[in-house]
Amino acid sequence: MVLIALEMTGLAVFAASGALAGVRARLDVFGVVVLAVTTALGGGILRDVLLGIHPPSALRDWRFLAVPAAVALAVFAGHRVFARLRRPMLVADAIGLGLFTVSGTATALEHGVPVHTACLIGMTTGIGGGALRDVLLREIPLVLRREIYALAALAGALVVAVGARLELPVGAASAVSVIGAALVVVVRMLALWRHWNAPVRADHPGGFSGGSQNDREH
Amino acid sequence: MVLIALEMTGLAVFAASGALAGVRARLDVFGVVVLAVTTALGGGILRDVLLGIHPPSALRDWRFLAVPAAVALAVFAGHRVFARLRRPMLVADAIGLGLFTVSGTATALEHGVPVHTACLIGMTTGIGGGALRDVLLREIPLVLRREIYALAALAGALVVAVGARLELPVGAASAVSVIGAALVVVVRMLALWRHWNAPVRADHPGGFSGGSQNDREH
Amino acid sequence: MVLIALEMTGLAVFAASGALAGVRARLDVFGVVVLAVTTALGGGILRDVLLGIHPPSALRDWRFLAVPAAVALAVFAGHRVFARLRRPMLVADAIGLGLFTVSGTATALEHGVPVHTACLIGMTTGIGGGALRDVLLREIPLVLRREIYALAALAGALVVAVGARLELPVGAASAVSVIGAALVVVVRMLALWRHWNAPVRADHPGGFSGGSQNDREH
Question: In chain A, what are the domain boundaries?
Answer without folding.
Answer: 2-199
